[in-house]
Please model this.
Amino acid sequence: MTGPLAGIRVIEIGQAVAGPMAGMILGDMGAEVIKIEKPDGGDDARGWGPPFIDGDSMLFHSMNRNKKSVTLDIKNPDDVAKLKALVKSADILIQNLRAGIVAECGIGPEVMCALNPRLIYCSVWAFGKNGPLRNAPGFDPLLQAYGGVMSLTGRPDDPPTFCAPAINDRATAQWCVIAALGALQARHQTGKGCVIDTALFDSAVAWVEGPLNGYNHTGKPPQRFGGASFTLVPYQVFETSDRPICIAAGNDRLFVKCAAVLGHPEWACDPRFLKVRDRAANRHALIDMMKPVLKTRSRAEWMAGLEKIGVPCSPVNTVPELAETEQLKAADLLRNLPGTDLNVVGLPIVFDGVRPYPRSDAPKLGEHNEEILSEPRATAAE
Model:
């Protein structure tokens, strides 16, 4: 499978996670991705380990599969001229450099789109192009902190808590790809590219959309409920006699069934718990009644009863447990990087029953200099 983006050329000027992940997604879907790296060391993420494989981090191998590495010093006029020549043949350009760099180096959207009016120029910023923080540095934990995510993560008495996966980097990469694909579709009608701006700050705000909307409407700050939903009850993690279980009785019908399995069908008739809004208003009373009941049996016993009558529930898996699940194997999510013994998580998309396969491992620094710089294509894809 060549992928739906075969024939599309992408230039990626960036490092770390957000920009490279956007390039990785496009590459997995068949695009040719040319990764521009600084000659002295390349992408910083090459050193973001352990673990390391053949000198580069596992993160780098995963985020930079299907790419060709070209080393250019964007502060060197000769190398900038080479980059501009490449841009004439590109369909999409992605950059996530520090704010101000592209303008200083003469490779901003005005310059590049003038060279190639069909170019879709995508910027991944920290805080965006506007505002007092437009030039501030941006790494995922900073945006989790500033964007309110940390204030909502964890139990009520916990300090602000960091979500371990780089959720803002990854979300921004995905928004960037969504926008680029939309722009590609528009280009079919107009023949023109466009300039796209995404930001980790915007993604962070999108994660807290519900709590922020609620606060703007009511003036009441949202609370933290640990492993529980803001609005639905019971919709959280509970301890059993051995291992934790997540129960998601997200509507009135499911709560009736859940109460019956727990041996207390009368809870469903209690005026405090009749409807979703009643249970939310009396969350502490209901949860305090459920906790000691759930500790009387094992997780497997509760899951058997809940699953039998269709109440959504799940074990709380560790990463090693997830790695051994039959569901992960059936989903066929793991992909081998060609030429290696490395397995990485593949693209969470399936086209006509086939999940995209990587075409190559991450490149060595500057591995494709001669190939790419000697024969750039003349024009972007029609």
In short: The first strand starts at residue 9 and ends at 13.
